[in-house]
Amino acid sequence: MLEEERHGHHWLKVIGVILATFLGAFLAFYFAVDMTFNRMMNPDYQIRKMEKMVQHQEKKFRKFEDRVFQDNPFEPRMAPMLVNLVKEPGEYKIIVDLKPLGGDEKNINIKLDDNVASVSGEVEKNSRHGEKIMNFSQSFYLDEKPDASRMTKERKGNKYIITIPYEE
């Protein structure tokens, strides 16, 4: 009888351990699901999630837009300002950004015709996708009569500065 009692207690222990294991697993699962559910129902979490989704979609759209409109010759694109005119006392300064032009002032031409200063340039860029030729031309009407004989040209870093004195 002692043997049977011992055997019965053994099964009770096994059943108790199995029940405790299932109960522990159930409680762990319940708390994990409850925490996840509460987190998902938190408005701040939902807002952050939506913001991330919107940012992701915007990024995908920009990549798509860049691919589609990259080399469309019929789509006008605004180029960065390459040439700027600054009027100072006694002189005009035409400042040309050389970065997009290959950094070479030899690509720049200046022409003075009466009160009109015209700046033009051209540069060829070779890449693995092919050859691209970029050219520009910009003219400025000068209020005062420019003195072409005293015109100077100098380079300062990536800027090419053309100074045109005028008669006051």
Structural overview:
The protein is of the alpha+beta class and 168 residues long. It has 2 domains: 2-69; 83-165, Immunoglobulin-like (Sandwich), CATH 2.60.40.790. The protein is 40% helix and 33% strand. The strands form 2 sheets. Strands 1-2-7-6 form a 4-stranded antiparallel β-sheet, with no helix packed on it.
Could you give a quick summary of the protein structure above?
This protein has 2 helices and 7 strands.
Write the layout of secondary structure elements.
Elements: H1 2-41, H2 43-69, E1 83-88, E2 91-97, E3 108-113, E4 116-127, E5 130-141, E6 152-156, E7 159-165
Antiparallel strand pairs: 1-2, 2-7, 3-4, 4-5, 6-7
Q: Round the Cα radius of gyration to an integer and report it.
A: 38 Å
Distance between the termini: 128 Å
**What's the total helix number?**
2
> What gross morphology would you assign?
rod-shaped
Low-confidence stretches: none
Main sheet strand line-up: 1-2-7-6
Strand tally: 7
Main sheet specs = 4 strands, antiparallel
Number of discrete domains: 2
The fraction of residues in strands falls at: 25-35%
How would you classify the helix and strand content by structural class? Answer: alpha+beta
- Named at the architecture level, the CATH assignment of the largest domain is Sandwich
**What is the CATH class name of the largest domain?**
Mainly Beta
